[in-house]
Amino acid sequence: MAAARGEFSSRFGFIMAAAGSAVGLGNIWGFPTQAASNGGGAFLMVYLILAFCIAYPALMAELIIGRHAHANAVEALRSVSRGPISRMFGGATGITGLIVASFILSFYVIVSGWMMAFCLNSMLTLAGFSEAAAWLIEFSLPRNLFFMGIFMLLTVGIISRGVQSGIEKWSGRLMPMLIVTLVLLVLYVLTLEGAMEGLKVYLVPDFERAISPSLIVKALGSAFFSLSLGVGTMLVYGSYIRDDENLPLVGGMVTMIDIGIAVMAGFLIIPAMYVAQHNGVEIFTATGALISEDTLIFTVLPALFQTMGVAGVIVSIVFFFLMSIAALTSSISILEVPVSYTIENHNMGRQKAVWTIGGAVAVLSTVVLLNFSWMFGLVIEVSTRYFQPLLGLVMCVFAGWVWNRNSILQELKKGDAATESGWFWKIWPGYVRTVCPIIILVVFVNYIWA
Ligand code: PFF
After folding, report:
1. pLDDT grade for 246, boundaries at 50, 70 and 90
2. Ligand 1: which atom is nearest the Cα of residue 22?
3. Helices 247-278 and 405-413, interaxial angle, to 10°?
């Protein structure tokens, strides 16, 4: 085992890092586009319920296990086990988590690369180099590979610096910038013509769709993806939290920031789509469905920005810059999952571990890009819609059934001596033991049988 582990130096540092992990493409690219194509307000409603009632308790399971073990996900799940079978199962869950995390990272760096390319495109356009700029937004293998590589290098660069001067420092710088930019963009888009129609779609739920099994599975996957759950990211970040920190409180703050930003991004993207439509941009296919979810913001938003003249170019730079920042604070957290395991369990130095794993994931991304038409959507769907909630379920089982209840209490007491009489201790242990696993299972069974 490596001798010294990293630690977040302050509450602010941890919250920015964990919220930085949670807030990313999932909030600004995933959630609003899924909401737009799945019943608008209905999706929002189901998402909010699942995020607060299932994802927050699951997040707490990861944070508490991680903080207790002060170790990577594989080691942590083994250490809370009480017999050889649960130990083996814990280790296998941790390993599965880091494999799934690597798959998530493989598509994440591709999409993040597009964000950077679009940002650069607008900058070049503003500078008058529109010819060169065109290459950046054309879908081509060289462009995709190039920007994927650049984004991976940025991720590797930050993670190689470790917890305090890498993760904490950069999240603390980038997150406030992201929040301010997002608020300004929302305010601007809401003043444009057509925005109110989008607002209506976003806020008025279509109840018939809210109860469809596939919508619920999508919303659950979206909530787990958005809070970075299941694959061990939050467990690892939890392992870097100081012992005197009040976990339910900081976990609650991270959840609020994450959900708040997803909801706010909805106020930007969905009205923007309708502004685009108002300006003559096609946003629906002939069958009335929304145009391709994955690429929606890469077609609709640039088309919208184009109709806005010079102001549009500036808004475009700001928007894609914002997306790139949000993506970077998330991609570093994903890479940290396999990296922390390799450092601690295979005695490798941080530099070597980061470059080796970063390189391996870049190869995986290249394979995805070479087989884009069938692999890209499949990797996203399998890793985020199925693996994340199901691994999250296993984490709940570990916190609720496998781990000793008294140890959990002692862990929580380190940061709050009065835990035992508080609301969290009254509700959470029973809830994470029964309600969370049952609801996750019911959502899946209902989906399979429907
Ligand atoms: N939560 C991130 C987002 O919303 O974009 C994505 C993510 C980060 C997923 C970390 C999984 C993960 F482990």
Report:
1. very high
2. 1
3. 80
